[in-house]
Design goal:
9 helices, about 200 residues, about 80% helix
């Protein structure tokens, strides 16, 4: 009974996370009505979150500090820059050119990119179910993209490529951070990465 409650709580938190993650694009599009640049909007976002992550990082220490090497901190710098800053930057710029709905569809292909990157660099096997899921995902993206293209939206290709780069950089972060998280812990690693991204 206790185990099922934990799972239910996890599923609920995941759903809330997805809803909030999806709402970001809509809020960004609304903000662009006030003639703000992508850089300034991203700066405000990071400046707002930075104090929270500084507090979180100060109260949490690495899970396995003895296993952390100096090079690991360089990797944290890299993944903080690529995974949060670059991914967010590409996303914010891309939203200047395409609708929030299309942005969400393209951005949410990042799990398929995680599978592909893991296959290329970590030699992980892709199952038949995963291949089918990847195929269905990209068919859906192409259909949606083609529909928007037929409407003659300006700069849709530029915006879509930028959002794809956002998904790719975020997927790279997820794959690369997999071996750092056990050493640092999820909360500590995320805090460090966000602090670096904000700076």
């Amino acid at each position: 009974m206790k185990y099922s409650k934990i799972i239910s709580s996890g599923v609920l938190l995941a759903i809330i996370g997805v809803v909030l993650f999806s709402a970001k694009a809509v809020i960004v599009k609304m903000a662009y009505r006030y003639d703000i640049s992508s850089e300034h909007l991203l700066l405000f976002r990071m400046a707002f979150s930075l104090p929270f992550y500084l507090v979180i990082a100060s109260f949490n220490r690495p899970t396995k500090p003895k296993e952390i090497k100096k090079v690991d901190y360089l990797w944290i710098l890299f993944f903080g820059f690529v995974g949060y800053y670059l991914a967010s930057y590409f996303d914010f710029i891309g939203l200047q050119y395409i609708k929030a709905g299309l942005e969400r569809i393209i951005l949410f292909i990042y799990p398929t990119l995680v599978i592909i990157i893991s296959r290329i660099f970590l030699k992980k096997t892709i199952t038949k179910k995963q291949l089918l899921a990847i195929f269905i995902t990209y068919i859906g993206v192409v259909i949606t993209f083609w529909g928007e293209l037929q409407l003659g939206a300006p700069n849709i290709v530029v915006g879509s490529v930028l959002i794809f780069l956002s998904a790719l950089t975020y997927a790279t972060y997820l794959v690369g951070s997999g071996w750092l998280i056990p050493k640092l812990g999820v909360i500590t690693f995320t805090s460090y990465a966000m602090i670096i991204s904000s700076l």
